[in-house]
Every structure is written in C-alpha cells, then in structure tokens.
Design a protein that fits this description.
Its cofactor is pyridoxal 5'-phosphate. Belongs to the class-III pyridoxal-phosphate-dependent aminotransferase family. One of its GO terms (molecular function) is pyridoxal phosphate binding. Keywords: Aminotransferase, Pyridoxal phosphate, Transferase. Helix content is 36%, strand content 15%. It has 447 residues and is an alpha/beta fold. It folds into two domains: 158 residues, Alpha-Beta Complex (Aspartate Aminotransferase, domain 1), CATH 3.90.1150; 275 residues, Aspartate Aminotransferase, domain 2 (3-Layer(aba) Sandwich). Strands 4-10-9-8-7-5-6 form a seven-stranded mixed beta sheet, sandwiched between helices. A four-stranded mixed beta sheet has the order 1-2-3-13. Strand 5, helix 7 and strand 6 form a beta-alpha-beta unit. The longest helix is centred in the C-terminal third of the chain and has 21 residues. It is globular, with a radius of gyration of 22 Å. It starts with 7 loop residues before the first helix and ends with a helix.
Length: 447
C-alpha cells in the first residue's frame, strides 16, 4: 500500500500519543522511510536520528537480520495462543534473556511494552507478598522525575507531574527525591554527590512502615526525566536498605536495558542486582512491540510453591500477545547482535566521544546543565518561567529544520544515538544542535 501525506482534513482522525495535536496539525513532522541512523521525510529530507527512535532502535533502522527473522517466522507461525499453549521460540528467547540477565534473574514474563512491564512487575510484587503470607505489603515507592510508562501502576510510582495530574487517585505510592543536585551540574558520567539521597527511603518508612511496603521501583538512571544519573553508591545503598527492611527492589530498564550504558543492563553497570527487572524497547530493536519482566528465582519459586491443585493458575495475569511469535523472532535476532562483546566495546568507545561532544555545548546561551552516561545524555535548557517547556520545544523544532531529530521533554533535550553511529556522526549531530540553540537565543534576544 502506498502511503500518502495526510491533509488537514484526514489528519484529525489520528489522535497522536504524547503530542500536542493542535501544534502538530499546524506543522506536521512526518517520516516516510528509515535506514541506518537516518529518517527520511516525504519531502526528501534526511534527518539524523539522535534518540534511536524513542530510545528503542540501538541497531539502527532497517536491520536486515531482524527483518529476515520476522519474515521467516511469519511463514511458519504467525500467532500462537498465549494462555495454556505456547511455541518453541518463546522458550528459546527466555533462555537467552536469562543468560544475559544478572545473577539469578532467570524467569521471564512477557508483555507488549515497557508500560505493561511496569504494571506486571507491580502486580507480581503484591502477589508475591500475599503468597509469602504478608498480604498487607501493598504500597509502592517510586522516585521523583521517574518514568514507568502510562498505565495506572506506572503513573503511580512515576514521578513526572504532568503525567499524573489529570487522572485523579492512583495506587498508594510514595516517592523518593530525584537525584539531580545543583552541585553536580555539568558532571561527566557519574556525579560525585548524592549517595545519601537513598536514605530518604528511611524517612518514608518512618511514616508508612516497611511492613506495608511491597516494592521500590526506580530506573538505574532516569531517562525520560532528562537522563538524571545517580551517584556511584546510590543504588547500592538503596539495595541495602531494601534488604534490611524486607522490601523488593525493581529496576525499570526499559531504556537502559541491552547496552545503552555499555553493559547489558544498568544493573551490571552499577553492580546491583534487583529482585525484578523490566525491559522492552531494544529487546526487539523497536521493530515489534514487546516487553518483559525478569524475576528472581525466589519470586518465581514462591509463586510456583503456592498450595492448591496443579491445574490452578499461579499468577492470573497475561496478554493476548504475550510472547508473540513474531516479536520473539525479532527479539532473538536483536539479542544475537546486542550480545556480541564487540558491540558493547563499540558502545563504550563511542560513549567517550559522545561525552566530549555533548559537553562541548557547555557555555552556549540557555544551557544550564549537561548530563551523560554511556550513550545517553541530556542538555537542560533554562526555562521560561511563564512557559516551562516552550524553549526546549522550539529548539527541538529548529533541530528538525537542521535535519536532526531531537526529542524534548520538559526543559531537556535528550539524546541516545544508535550504537552503529560513527564518531563523525556524533560530532555532526551536536554541531547542528549547537547551531539550533544559538539561533534560537539570537531570535529571542537571549544570547
């Protein structure tokens, strides 16, 4: 089927996700083709993809190995029921993921997105404690500026205000402070200060009591919140406190999972093992919707050892498309490439180039902070008090005009280029971003 450019009349039928639809209709940003590290527009422009889509295509676009795997699977088995029936590829993929995950995280529950993975993990946490004879442990703790998708569990533990405010009462959840500190501005990689921020958990427990808390859920680094990186000992301290107070620790690795930090998982980077780990995005290189929760042996075995008849369902949860055959094929082909030591070495090598290139923008007008870790980074733009997100939004639009796709969120410009970039690609992306920032500052009389 040949695609056509939508008109103002036909455009209204598609309600875009997480988008100002009114503004989009005024100046649509459309892509019609993608290859490697580039998007192509219907008008023939070629744009750098500086965020790997939405953090999800680290192998670039048009990956032939994944395309061929999906095509082959489609010719063999297009769908298999997810309940009471399965297919061989689901077990092969689970074994592959278990082999890549840290420690005894070796049991995999499938879903269709990072949002579903977050809610699956939260439901499993409650079910686990009920199976352990502690049904009162139902509350959750997240973190300010954290993002765990858009379903009710995810926005409850999530800490981005605009994602929560219009929906009223959510789950019973409390929030640790975020890990951004003014004294850490312009840190290269891990900031120096901030281990003590994990002790805020103790203040929450003074009021809520650990006997009521099911789990703490955090990202190893807060990606959508603006690549907010914790100090080196923060997660270790959080792990210690959770162990001391009998609380599960869940890592949301939807962004950090499968190489973004130069290690397979963020848990590996920080040498901290959670009780559960959620992933999605890079799992299939963004080509097929798929998410997963990887759980510890203890959680799995606790659920399996519940009393009752063998035909009873241990965890009444799942989706029509859980472990979909085409998604499994895409994931197997994606992980075969992402699990290559040479690729992780390439990510670590590019990370230094990336760090130097993004920090070269320090000193530009309106740039009030720059943060980075692995192949992820953010440029924090000084907010207009009357319109907090306006400047980053308009700079992002100028970047589009300069043929580089840049994602903005709040007052941040976020970057997570594909792992297949060259050093020159990295420098070119930030050269264009610098031009856009300087142009905007001149236009606004702020330089």
């Amino acid at each position: 089927m040949r695609s056509t450019v939508p008109t103002g009349e036909t455009m209204r039928h598609h309600w875009l996700a997480f988008t100002s639809n009114r503004r989009f209709h005024q100046a649509p940003k459309l892509v019609s083709k993608a290859e490697g590290i580039f998007y192509h527009t219907p008008q023939g422009h070629k744009l750098y993809d500086s965020l790997s889509g939405l953090w999800c295509t680290p192998l670039g676009h048009g990956n032939r190995q994944i395309s061929e795997a999906i095509s082959h699977q489609l010719s063999q088995l297009d769908y298999a029921p997810a309940f009471n029936v399965s297919h061989p590829l689901a077990f092969q993929l689970s074994e592959q993921i278990a082999g890549m995950a840290p420690g005894d995280l070796n049991h995999v529950l499938y879903c269709n997105s990072g949002s579903e993975a977050a809610d699956t993990a939260l439901k499993l946490a409650r079910a686990y404690w009920r199976a352990r004879g502690k049904p009162e442990k139902t509350k959750f703790i997240g973190r300010a500026k954290g993002y765990h998708g858009v379903n009710f569990g995810g926005i409850s533990v999530g800490g981005i205000g605009p994602n929560r405010k219009v929906y009223g009462q959510t789950l019973d959840a409390y929030h640790l402070p975020h890990t951004w500190l003014t004294e850490n501005r312009f840190s290269r990689g891990l900031p120096q200060e901030g281990d003590y921020l994990a002790d805020a958990l103790l203040q929450i427990l003074e009021v809520q009591d650990a006997s009521n808390i099911a789990a703490v859920m955090v990202e190893p680094m807060a990606g959508s919140g603006g690549v907010i990186v914790p100090s080196s000992g923060y997660l270790k301290r959080l792990r210690t406190l959770c162990d001391q107070h009998d609380i599960l620790l869940i890592f949301d690795e939807v962004i950090t999972g499968f190489g973004r930090m130069g290690t397979v998982f963020g848990a590996d980077y920080f040498a901290v093992q959670p009780d559960m780990l959620t992933c999605a995005k890079a799992l299939t290189n963004g080509i097929m919707p798929m998410g997963a929760v990887i759980t510890s042996r203890d959680i799995y075995q606790t659920m399996m050892d519940q009393p009752g008849d063998d035909f009873m369902i241990e965890f009444p949860h799942g989706y029509t498309y859980s472990a979909h055959p085409l998604a499994c094929a895409a994931a197997m082909a994606s992980l075969e490439q992402l699990n290559q030591p040479s690729l992780m070495e390439q990510v670590r090598s590019l990370s230094q180039v990336f760090e130097d290139a993004i920090h070269d923008l320090k000193g530009l007008p309106l740039v009030e902070d720059i943060r980075n870790i692995g192949l992820a980074g953010a440029i924090q733009i000084q907010s207009d008090p009357a319109h907090p997100t306006k400047r980053a939004s308009e700079i992002s639009a100028l970047c589009w005009d300069k043929e580089v796709y840049v994602r903005f969120g709040g007052n941040n410009l976020s970057f997570a280029p594909p792992f297949i970039c060259s050093k020159q690609d990295i420098h070119e992306i930030f050269s264009r971003v610098a031009d856009a920032i300087q142009q905007y500052a001149r236009q606004q009389g702020l330089n």
